Amino acid sequence: MRVEQLVLGLVAFARSAIAAPAPLDLVVRDGVSADDCPGYEASNVKKTDSSITADLTLAGDACNVYSDDLKDLKLLVEYQSKDRLHVKIFDKDEQVYQVQEELVPRPKHGETPSADAALEFELVEKPFSFKITRKENDEVLFDTSGRQLIFESQYVGLRTSLPDNPNIYGLGEHSDPFRLPNVNYHRTMWNSESPFIPTNANLYGSHPVYFDHRGDKGTHGVFLLNANGMKIDLDVTESGDQYLQYNTIGGIIDLYFLAGKQPAEVSKQYADTVGYSAMYPYWAFGFHQCKYGYWDVNMVAEVVGNYSTAGIPLEVMWTDIDYMDGRQDFTTDPERFPIGKMRELVSTLHSRGQRYVLILDPGVHFKEGYAPYERGHEMGVFYKNADGSDHLGVQWAGTVAWPDWLAPNTSKWWADEIATTFSADNGIDLDGIWVDMNEASNFCGDIDCNPLDNQGNPPKVGHDPRPNTGRPIPGFPDDFQPNRRSVTRQDNGKYKGLPGRDLFVAKYDPVNHRGNLSGFTIWTNNTNADGTKAYDTHNLHGHAMSHVTYDAMLARRPGLRPLVLTRSTFAGNGRKATHWFGDNESSWEHYRVSIRQMLAWVSMHQMPMVGSDVCGFNGNANEQMCARWALLGAFQPFYRNHAEISSVQQEFYQWPLTITAAKKAIDTRYKLIDYAYTALHYQTTQGTPMINPLFFLYPEDSNTFGIQHQWFYGDALLISPVTTDWSESVTLYLPKDTFYDYWTGRRIEGLGANVTLNHVSWTDIPVHIRAGTIIPQRANSANTTAELRKENFVFVVAPDVDGKAKGRLYIDEGEKIVQEQTTLLDITWDNGHITVGGRWGYPGLKGESITIERFKVLGQEEIQMGSLGEASTFDPATGAVTVEGSWNLDADFEVHM
Ligand SMILES: *[C@@H]1O[C@H](CO)[C@@H](O)[C@H](O)[C@H]1NC(C)=O
Ligand SMILES: *[C@@H]1O[C@H](CO)[C@@H](O)[C@H](O)[C@H]1NC(C)=O
Ligand SMILES: *[C@@H]1O[C@H](CO)[C@@H](O)[C@H](O)[C@H]1NC(C)=O
Ligand SMILES: *[C@@H]1O[C@H](CO)[C@@H](O)[C@H](O)[C@H]1NC(C)=O
Ligand SMILES: *[C@@H]1O[C@H](CO)[C@@H](O)[C@H](O)[C@H]1NC(C)=O
Ligand SMILES: *[C@@H]1O[C@H](CO)[C@@H](O)[C@H](O)[C@H]1NC(C)=O
Ligand SMILES: CC(=O)N[C@H]1CO[C@H](CO)[C@@H](O)[C@@H]1O
């Protein structure tokens, strides 16, 4: 959520957000330019079958362009697997910060003989540079010879040349085009609260991985495992040579090259590197509703009631910070959200098959007598100033202390608070947790701000539906004395960060749109319990918090898959958490942005369960746009309507068009949940993305490379929403392939050309089935996913030109981490014969159906009437043959049409 006064901060920093950064090599310090830097020379090169090591020595006088050049470095090259090559350049003394293993566990070095690897590393000793080549076609993927390596105490610069006009994707989190601009493009990574998700700016998370797609020459990925603030430039030199340049304000060069060569193979190889996404409960695919500004528990209940009355299925109800007492974590407002009524709300939801999720923030109210703070303080979980006092900031509750998620007691403290507050026996028995503001966002904008002057953010009574019920939120009492506690922290050990740096200012400016490094966040001079500095670990704060929250949820309900939604992320966050795209606005542009963000996050950043605030967060939604967005969101993995406190209510029951659109959208989404759940199962176990950009399925069709308004939901359904403001027509691209209209079943030949559809009403969304696929559906939708599971299956077969198709279906119980009884089917269609085989095991618990009642085969225009079996019917209008029957999913079977 966003803070009203942040708008002021945004205005104050607008200048720095739009000022075009000077081309890097023109930036000079004391008359020195990066071009004067001497580079390095390699020596003592040693090779084994699967690795190379060398010493790198500064090859001349230090240039010290942004800080001090390091004289002695080491190079380590590992052929980790056939498809993954690791290149690491680090300081000889191993003091420079390296990302903690517990935050990003490293993949194993599989010691693949270099002869067996898809990629080749070539070393040039003097001046030092290296080149990575795809062996199969001699394609040079990475070549650093265009500019000398610079490795300083507060700046590391490495450039690779690229082909002209390259197809580069990834590098989240941003709201920029899906296919990134490659001239004068600068991508900052410094996690920041970012209301309105401005373009060309750093947002909430950092994922320094890009995909480079070269058509029939293959796709590869490059991941830089460096969490420091950085700016990545995509640009051309004066002589027209294309390059990508990393500029970090610390850390080391830790590159993973992923060979592909199909796009989805790069996704898998990235999952092998940073970890596979957690699997989510089946119910997480339901429809979610939230709003900041649901004033009390009655209003929350009324929203739930109004959804039922409108006949729109609601699976999960959420409450924003409104529920807290004075915006303090682990409290409920005794008048507006009394614990007794909260418990009743949750038990009612649960009895109807619905779920409940609440928010937590990292800033903990710094207040005597506030027990969660006092316990945390006793346990030494907060950041400390040099004098041992708590490092303070300002957040929703007022003056706050900040947990150091790496301190030894923090996990226990957080898990205990969660277990108590959210106890099933006498607390709020919630089903998931949303962690917000964890970049971390500090309402204190700079280091001159005194956190003790801030009295918190009382609810905005003017916007509340009921006057006079607003109680002032208690602030910081006058007689408060900071409770000091001395600390000893390790310092400057291995990988802890070089001593003697300026921890507030890096002379190389990564261009944070919120100003200085410590602007609106936890100050970067803080020391973590393990001796590392916030200067180096800033981008890991939300990542660490969300992972600690996952562990706490697991401790609270052992064995069940936690749903933890986090605003701030780092590469590999998906292992334990998922993300929504932050505080967007209710605009057509952000409706479009949600598509490109989803494309990159699911298919490249390996965080599949993502989505935007449907109908937009800031500003007022309107009926038509919200109707379109209801349909759009239904084909994105995480589907939640959410709005800001000062926005109009935008629940789907608010307008006639949104009621119609939402019913259709949710009905369709629910019938397809098993299909999506199967795709998620494959992403979480094999890394294959559940959302496919068009070029993933048509990698040689250059018309697809820039498409950012269409996507494949799973690998069979092509979604092509209307994306023009206030329009009822859409121009969509159909690759050269056979498709079927999802709604009518009619066959359409894609010509590798655009098709314009007119008169797409506000409650319609074009969806096409790619030929060659089989889609498992439920015969009917239901009011909750629990009810849905009682419905029988229908398999929709979409044969390709050869009369063949295949699909798959995964079924389990839906919520447990370890599933003992699962069904995993391969379904094939071959010219009139359906074969269903695979692994059988899920028995269908609690009245759930595991029965197929119908096969629907599309595109059978040429069928001979009378040649069909008795249970079959043919619809000449659409060309679909339907075979009715009853097949239990507990043994292999065949069906002949
Ligand atoms: C629920 O619906 C009633 C009747 O239309 C309306 O008066 C009320 O404002 C709605 N409540 C909420 C929270 O949307
Ligand atoms: C859904 O329908 C079932 C069966 O009729 C009912 O028990 C349940 O309360 C309903 N849930 C909701 C949220 O309406
Ligand atoms: C952890 O908490 C215990 C109290 O539960 C305290 O005695 C101990 O000092 C704390 N450890 C640290 C490192 O602060
Ligand atoms: C960070 O800098 C501030 C301002 O100089 C100082 O008060 C604080 O003690 C410093 N923190 C640490 C951990 O050194
Ligand atoms: C940024 O830091 C510089 C150097 O410490 C300081 O002069 C400037 O006031 C800071 N700007 C903001 C907006 O805090
Ligand atoms: C399809 O239309 C878009 C604009 O809507 C255009 O950018 C693109 O080049 C067109 N593609 C083809 C293959 O004509
Ligand atoms: C992606 C996008 O459209 N961002 C816009 C969001 O709103 C801010 C403030 O109005 C603009 O500056 C961004 O460009």
From TrEMBL:
Glycoside hydrolase family 31 TIM barrel domain location: 278-679
Keyword Signal in annotation: yes
Gene Ontology biological process: carbohydrate metabolic process
Catalytic activity of the protein: Hydrolysis of terminal, non-reducing (1->4)-linked alpha-D-glucose residues with release of alpha-D-glucose
Organism, as annotated: Karstenula rhodostoma CBS 690.94
Protein family per UniProt: Belongs to the glycosyl hydrolase 31 family.
Protein name (Swiss-Prot/TrEMBL): alpha-glucosidase
Chain spans, region Disordered: 454-493
Residue ranges of coiled coil: none
Range of residues in the leader sequence: 1-19
Enzyme class: hydrolase
Annotated ranges, domain Glycosyl hydrolase family 31 C-terminal: 687-775
UniProt keywords, alphabetically: Glycosidase, Hydrolase, Signal
GO MF term list: alpha-1,4-glucosidase activity; carbohydrate binding
EC code: 3.2.1.20
Domain Glycoside hydrolase family 31 N-terminal: from-to ranges: 109-233
Pfam families from the UniProt entry: Gal_mutarotas_2, Glyco_hydro_31_2nd, Glyco_hydro_31_3rd
